[in-house]
Write a structure and sequence with these properties.
Helix content: 25-40%
Distance between the termini: 5 Å
Radius of gyration: 16 Å
Largest sheet: 8 strands, parallel
Strand order of the largest sheet: 1-8-7-6-5-4-3-2
Number of strands: 8
Bound molecules: D-xylitol-5-phosphate, zinc ion
Number of domains: 1
Structural class: alpha/beta
Number of helices: 8
CATH superfamily: Aldolase class I
Shape: globular
Strand content: 15-25%
Order of helices and strands: EHEHEHEHEEHEHEHH
Amino acid sequence: MQISPSLLSADFSNLEREMAWFNQSEADFLHLDVMDGVFVPNISFGFPVLKHVARICQKPLDVHLMIVQPEKFINEVKELGAYYMNVHAEACTHLHRVVSQIRQAGMHPAVTLNPSTPVGVLEDIIEELDMVLLMSVNPGFGGQSFIDRTYAKVRALRQLIDSRGLHTRIEVDGGVSLDNAQQLAEAGADILVAGSAVFGAADPAEVIRRLK
Ligand code: DX5
Ligand code: ZN
């Protein structure tokens, strides 16, 4: 299992200290949640802040854009040196075009689905994706409870990916902890995002190790 801890639950007053232990940890990615107060009812941090985070983070970046018209920011995300650029299917009228643009920019395109969006919307785009991010909470806040329906969605997505012989990764985001990681792995998840479970722990590096 790969782990992508979410910076949203980090201590923003001392990101250098957070990145010091994080860089030494077994985390596979750093998950960055960008919010606009329109697509989701909250605002987190923007590119001027992330530019500094990217400079001191030594792990590949997994950028999750919870914003309308994410295609406007492909260059900004590219300049961060992002590995994955996640856009919400619900935020893109022309999802195929946006995914192509992300690929052309040299990043790995990923599409995110809200809890109420069925896996079936990916039928005609899945071949173009390197990852699908299934939200297991309604996006916008850290520390929410995991929605149990997600297990069935992970299984349905695993089935879609395997039936087409693809290697698309499955990532799950929201309310992930040591209590549900095992079940998510069994359902077919490849990467788990964890915010409060990691950054809120007394020994975050140990939680990452156990989640893996
Ligand atoms: C929620 C974000 C998540 C969030 C997860 O909108 O997309 O990445 O940081 O936080 P936890 O793990 O605390 O639910
Ligand atoms: Zn996220």
